[in-house]
Write a structure and sequence with these properties.
mainly alpha
């Protein structure tokens, strides 16, 4: 019985941990998606919808250049060079 309880608690911990341990990068991108959703709800014309998409792309780019880049740099193993994009 104790073994089953330990396995159940371990499983709960392993699956619940990612739910509250999101990264700043993911939070930023989620905020950009939420802003897009709200913008599209208020959009009237196709031009408004395109403007919403452009704003979302700009926000996502800001996330990639900010929080995501910092997070990637922190997660890189020490002493290894960061590969440059082609």
């Amino acid at each position: 019985m104790t073994g089953t309880l330990v396995v159940a608690l371990f499983s709960l911990f392993m699956f619940a941990a990612p739910l509250y341990a999101q990264s700043p990068c993911l939070d930023c991108l989620a905020a950009a998606r939420e802003e897009l959703k709200k913008c599209l709800e208020n959009a009237i014309s196709q031009e408004d919808k395109k403007s919403c998409a452009d704003k979302k792309e700009a926000k996502a780019k800001t996330c990639e250049d900010g929080e995501c880049k910092i997070e990637r740099a922190q997660s890189e193993p020490k002493g290894q060079a960061v590969p440059k994009p082609k």
